[in-house]
Amino acid sequence: MVDDYSALGFETRAIHAGQKPDPRTGAVIVPIYQTSTYAQDGVGGTREGDYEYSRTANPTRTALEQALAALEGARHTLAFASGMAASDAVLRTVLRPGDHLVLGNDAYGGTFRLIDKVLSLWGIEHTVADLSKIDEVRAAIRPETKLIWCESPTNPLLGVADIAALAGVAHDAGARLVVDNTFATPYLQTPLALGADIVVHSTTKYLGGHSDVVGGAVVTDEDDLREQLFYLRNAAGAVPGPFDAWLTLRGLKTLALRMERHSDNAELIAQTLAKHPKVSKVYYPGLPEHPGHEAAAKQMRRFGGMVSFRHADGEEAALQVASRTKLFILAESLGGIESLIEHPGRMTHASTAGSTLQVPADLLRLSVGIEDPRDLIADLNAALG
Ligand code: PLP
């Protein structure tokens, strides 16, 4: 059995790291340890590393954590019940009343809501900035700034931040850089290697990959931070169940194959939409005219499966397209094998209405699946009319 996976390729790590055959039965696939508690050797006799209660630790979850850590090239991963639970744990572990964070102006609506509506009640302040503009980020930093919270590519405008440059700004200010790596996944981008301190994931998306499980994860190299996050997770209890951990682990095994195909299909669709007369603008970091193309090419292996575009005839026309597609399913979320379409202004990003986050009303977001791209393009052409 291999003990050190770090020198092995991504696909090998996805299938083997943390996933040795079960020592008792030889089961090749890590079992779903569907148990809440574990027999102990004697009162107080649990050995370090042994399991005692599944809120604290569960072997299926441990396998998922080890596999994802290996994919991010990190020392530690902690799995959570959802992406928001993971983000919440990072925010509540790192920030205290009086602290301040800088948040991207195009962050996921739920992240913005948590920071703007919930953390603010505890005296934590934030400034929204365009993270692709390093001077704007520097100007937003205050003496109390403890975090820069970055998504790259962003949701839903596919903006790209230079992660290495942002890490430099954060560290100069004595702050940490968090990267929400949900859109890119570790197959396309490994933020810790670029200087980030913490990675968060909604594993609900590409990591699970099949739209059948909700989950989240936090990834870091810092031992102390891992202990603090572990403490909070155990104290607050936002853990994924064993079956959810198993489904996510199963998804990880095919991540590389899926991300290649998502990227192939999205590239074709972005190019097609860019030529369509009813489309006024396409947001895809793989297009050379995208303002973040150069930064994306530097830090990403490929450009991923998310494409957003604006309808030339405005919001009503965009809503019509979303209701007319037959293969692209009208639904929130992203990152599954099936293609989805949604209207961010009224759906995923409705919670940002009236805030400084600006989502155009004529914007549609596509999560491009792994179907035959010819069928997907025909579906979009028919819906655009
Ligand atoms: N981060 C990003 C970029 C997301 O798109 C989402 C959900 O859409 C989340 C975080 C939150 O994840 P979850 O829905 O698993 O709580």
End-to-end gap: 57 Å
Order of helices and strands: HHEHEHEHEHEHEEHHHEHEHEEEH
Question: Quick check: average pLDDT?
Answer: 95
Domains (count): 2
Shape: globular
* Share in helix: 25-40%
DSSP helix count? 13
Q: State the secondary-structure class.
A: alpha/beta
Largest sheet: 7 strands, mixed
In short:
By secondary structure, the chain is an alpha/beta fold.
Can you put this structure into words, describing what you see?
It is a single chain. The protein has 385 residues and is of the alpha/beta class. It has two domains: 10-253, Type I PLP-dependent aspartate aminotransferase-like (Major domain) (Aspartate Aminotransferase, domain 2, 3-Layer(aba) Sandwich), CATH 3.40.640.10; 256-384, Aspartate Aminotransferase, domain 1 (Alpha-Beta Complex), CATH 3.90.1150.10. It has 13 helices and twelve strands. The chain has helices spanning 10-16, 59-72, 83-94, 109-118, 134-140, 163-172, 185-188, 223-236, 242-253, 255-274, 293-299, 315-324, 373-384, and strands at 76-80, 100-104, 125-129, 145-151, 176-180, 198-202, 216-220, 279-283, 306-311, 329-330, 340-342, 363-367. The strands form two sheets. The chain has a seven-stranded mixed sheet with strand order 1-7-6-5-4-2-3, with helices on both faces. Helix 6 links the parallel strand 4 (145-151) and strand 5 (176-180). Helix 2 packs parallel to helix 9 (242-253). The longest helix has 20 residues, at 255-274. The protein is globular and about 70 Å long. The chain starts with 9 loop residues before the first helix and ends with a helix. Bound molecules: pyridoxal-5'-phosphate. Pyridoxal-5'-phosphate (PLP) is lined by residues 82-84, 108, 110-111, 151, 155, 180, 182-183, 202, 204, 214, 216, 333.
